[in-house]
Design a protein that fits this description.
This protein is α/β, with parallel strands linked by helices and 259 residues long. It has helices spanning 9-14, 34-45, 58-67, 97-117, 146-158, 179-191, 195-201, 212-217, 243-258, and strands at residues 2-3, 17-20, 27-28, 31-32, 49-53, 72-75, 80-84, 89-93, 133-137, 162-165, 169-173, 202-206, 221-223, 237-238.
């Protein structure tokens, strides 16, 4: 990884937008600070489309799309989200209602099994706002052992579920999109951007394991200083500051280079 100062003016000016993670990237321990929130306005003023891409629930995405200076918010690691077309807020889902209901039934059965066989698992406090997945708290308000996480992942995958791990949660889902494929799908359907072009035209900033697909998919990738894990393809740049301050640092760099 290179320091953020290595990002060139030409590369910054080719960007059409910025995709960003929430937990421990824009948010500090789940809290939104003034510096990071202000940075979103500066980025928008610099002409960038802003799209949140998070493992947090669909209910969070609705609120973010409604109240933040963003084009859209994609939730639950890719399959669902909300966008504002300037007149109204619209929800988008990667599958139809019947298929969503079928997957919800499979997920309920799996979660019941996990909670019976691994009773130490603690549901995340945002599960009531979720549509496509279920999350357990492994590092937000409750610390789960690596052995417990590994056992849960193995059991979920044996049942045919996909698993994602963020800095705070362990997710289970029967959807096959991840943050990158969900974002590329949205950009194609909403903005008519070819996925190959989108990889060059949109940057991504994040911090954790479930951000790995985006670190691999997009050309301009940035990690905040608190990057966790070792993604197979790491981000190209890293900030000096962690979490929301790191996001604000990246925003200042992008705005200055595009000025």
């Amino acid at each position: 990884m290179k320091p953020l100062a290595a990002l060139t003016r030409d590369e910054a000016n080719q960007l059409r937008g910025l995709l960003f993670d929430l937990d421990d990237t824009v948010l500090d321990g789940g809290r939104l600070g003034e510096e990071a929130y202000s940075a979103l306005f500066r980025l928008r003023e610099a002409g960038l489309l802003l799209i949140a891409v998070t493992g947090r629930p669909a209910s969070w995405a609705e609120l973010i799309a409604r109240q933040w200076p963003v084009d859209a918010a994609i939730a639950e690691n890719g399959p669902i989200g909300w966008f504002d077309d300037g007149e109204r807020l619209t929800r988008f889902d990667s599958v139809d209602v019947d298929e969503r209901n079928r997957r919800a039934a499979l997920l309920a059965e799996l979660i019941g099994d996990l909670r019976r066989t691994l009773p130490a698992l603690v549901p995340a406090d945002d599960v009531n706002g979720r549509v496509t997945d279920f999350a357990f708290d492994i590092n937000e308000h409750h610390r789960a052992s690596e052995e417990l996480v590994a056992a849960a992942v193995a059991r979920g995958r044996a049942a045919g579920a996909a698993t994602f791990r963020s800095s705070v949660h362990l997710h289970f889902t029967f959807d096959r999109l991840d943050k990158a494929t969900g974002a590329l799908r949205y950009l194609r359907l909403r903005h008519h951007v070819d996925p190959t072009a989108a990889r060059r035209l949109f940057a991504f900033i994040g911090d954790s394991e479930n951000d790995a697909p985006c670190f691999a998919a997009f050309r301009t990738t940035i990690a905040v200083a608190n990057l966790r894990g070792r993604p197979p393809i790491g981000p190209r740049f890293i900030t000096e500051a962690p979490q929301g301050r790191g996001f604000a640092e990246a925003a200042r760099a992008l705005v200055a280079l595009r000025g």
